[in-house]
Amino acid sequence: MNFKTLLENKELQPYLLKARYGVEREGQRMTLAGDLVDTLHPTTLGNRKHHPYIQTDFAETQLELITPVAQSISELFNFLTAIHEVAYRSMDPEEMIWPLSMPPMLPEKEEDILIAQLDNFEDVLYRRYLAKSYGRRKQMVSGIHYNFEFSDDLLQKMFALQSEIKEYTAFKTAVYLKVTRNYLHYSWLVTYLFGATPVSEARYFEGDERPNEPVRSIRNSSHGYKNHPDVKVSYESLEQYIVDLERMVNEGKLLEEKEFYSVVRFRGGKKMADLAEAGIRYIELRNLDLNPFAPCGISEEQAEFLHLFLLFLLWKEEEAPAHIWVTDGERKNEEVALEHPLQATRYQEEALETLMALQAFIEEQGLRVSDGLMATYIEMVKTPAETVAGKLYTQSQKTSQKEVATKIALENHARAWAKPYQLAGFTQMELSTQIFMFDAIQKGIQVEVLDDRDQFLKLSVGNHVEYVKNANMTSKDSYIVPLLMANKTVTKKVLDQAGFRVPKGREFSSLEEAVTDYPEFAGQGIVVKPKSTNYGIGISIFKEGASLEDYQAALRVAFEADEDVLVEEFFSGTEYRFFVIDGKVKGILLRVPANVKGDGERTVEALVAEKNRDPLRGTNHRSPLEKIQLGDLEKIALKSQGYDITDVPAKDEIVYLRDNSNISSGGDSIEVTEMFNEDYKEVAVKAVEALGAVICGIDLIIPDHTIPASEKDAYGIIEGNFNPAMMMHIYPHKGIGPRLTMDVLELLFPEMF
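Request: output the structure for the sequence above.
Response:
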């Protein structure tokens, strides 16, 4: 099959860079001092047998992080960085992930390397067999497995453009066989560029098996974790590949097919036997050392290069029969792997020719690639010190490899814990959704982002599927519930009819009508708010009544947010947010309106700027607290206290920038659940039941929480929230908040708890 001619067809150009990707990253857990831990797999991560993202490799200390299948490299790294962050923050805070493929110093006694304590005893037996056959120390090496699948669109188009191969499955198999043979031949180039195991730490090698360190890649040489020399498999055809593997097992050279540790592994089904019928669906590249300079062990640039390289290898002609071509590559790889990391490779000229040919292929095909991508790798060939191994070895010479690795790991650790309320890879999403995704990944629930801008997720455990929007809008609430609570007039009527105290008021559809009725509200505390908005948008509160001027200004603000506006009586007291899930109050929050504390020297404006420097404050719900604004509503609130933004408040005087206490408008959150008796919690639960909701935030005004809820006017309900923000409960300004996102997950997937 002449794939070179086929790929030069211009019809294929739109599909060449489409693919599916996956990464499996192994890594040893270590202490902050850079030593191998002696702890078990984190219990916070649930059952690793069923965990789709975070499992254990050979040893109890060796994590394996697995991405879902991604449709783009950016999507791949979004998930990879997210899973890394979940792993870091699920471990003991005094632990981190070793960034090198070669493990940190191992125990003196090999038997002290603890084999993974898995539920399936067959898996344990298999690891015991590996320990006996290869030694536990050899098993402690880690790496990157890069899973790659050409897009079905590309392969279908290619298949349609040829007539030589009649079956599509056979055509795909031929594609991956060709790529694999070429990759095995040129694996030495990948080892040169990305090899990153120049030296071993103490107790990895025993006796005389240690290579003449430093080298480019111990792991990718014969001194790494390899099958025994008598294991030989042909790549000439899939049929011969399967026959050879079966023969290796029958002859006792392999315990089972998965013990075959090839540079490239074929994937077609759940088991190796499925390949015969299903053909090769994708390939798994297994010769990538961990890149210590990439927080996830592999960079986006590496992933992009590998995609281009594999496409190029499909195009490039093989220059010898399969067994000779592959064997020649294996020989060169051994030589390159054992070269000094700062030495020009003996195959420098061929490496340059290959990369220049790849660059020409990219240009001829009109492929869009990252700026400077190929120039970077060409420079690596010319300058060995620029390779990953070269950089690692050079830096290690100044101190030690352990010290370099520990420093890198500490930087990764600090990055993972810097903003524990965010999820790396998905920081563009609303904060409650980020926290919710973190908890789902940690628990081992599969997560698919259907629409990141709309915060729409698909969660699944086996055949159990749930769709979630904004982290708490679920199938447990009927469609009518958010419609009911979005309409504040309807909410009030439902609660009033159910016997709950709600504010009296009027609804207006025009500014003129509302202004005409001003005398009705003059001289009494009122609230002016849009009928159907959230997050405190457009709300003005006048505790002592409003002048006509201020009343008109508040109306204008409210009508900007909605076509209908409510003017209601003001309930005096303290506002509390009760968060109800499935008939239980899970959290109670006191929200204090946006405020600053005077120091007698600085203006209100300067005090706001200072308070907004708090790292917990951000915008667009990406932080637990919102920055305080200085818009029209804030200026109205200041005016009611006799201030404007240029005034200097007295020392220790509290000045409020808002009358409403919404966190979304700059307020402070204080966790107070334990302060309340059951009677007020019961009121909240019953009110949510009256609204027909399962997940709801209900806002109560309570003058004195020590007075029983049954007393006259002990409380008033001002609002129900069908999509209540959770981050302000989880990360309050004061107190320790409940993990509400985990409560929602338990409601949806009780089988996981």
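The longest helix spans residues 73-90.
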